[in-house]
Amino acid sequence: SGNNFEIIIIDDGSPDGTQEIAEQLEKIYGSDKILLRPRARKLGLGTAYIHGMKHATGNFIVIMDADLSHHPKFIPEFIRKQKEGNFDIVSGTRYKGNGGVYGWDLKRKLISRGANFITQILLRPGASDLTGSFRLYRKEVLQKLMEKCVSKGYVFQMEMIVRARQLGYTIGEVPISFVDRVYGESKLGGNEIVSFLKGLLTLFATT
After folding, report:
1. Domains in the chain with CATH codes
2. Neighbours of 129 (CB within 10 A)
3. Which residues does residue 177 pair with via DSSP β-bridges, in sequence order?
4. Quick one: which of 45, 80, 43 has its CA closest to 60?
5. Rounded to the nearest 10 degrees, what angle do helices 190-206 and 106-123 cross at?
6. Where is the Glycosyltransferase 2-like domain (predicted)?
7. Which of 75, 93, 121, 150 could cross-link to 129 by cystine, CB 3.0-4.6 Å?
């Protein structure tokens, strides 16, 4: 790609062999390119971001799921988009242009669409996909947002965008295809939906 990069893998003691595979990749590509930074147990997405940022040496950070739901082929488009508008954040969107979701049942699609629709009405964030996590951040912007965000779980990604708008950061979007994971299970359940609605109302009241 011509871009200098490092891949930081944060593994929270997952039972699926992620750490062992990452160790193999580290041997192949070198510890300067593959940085495995495991943690002993599951401590949450927000703290994983902070943990990863401590080890990141670049000016920009791309955050993505490691199960290939987020395909690496979109990363060059994120970089092009950032350069094109000098954006602080470039967000992958499933709901604009030729973006889409593959492998979800109707219930999951309705929940995701509904969450985005309600959020657009209440918060008017100026971005089309609030709950996705495939994004490029300017490093100092990500650090600032992490200091401001208080949400946990499903609503966390949404708060990142809402706070970004509140702080005047610029956001570009790249349509992406999201493919549901082949292995493992989604963590989205009834408790997460209730937490999302509570978090949404909290954001509505505080932004």
Report:
1. 1-58 (no CATH), 60-206 (3.90.550.10)
2. 24
3. 100
4. 80
5. 10
6. 3-145
7. 93
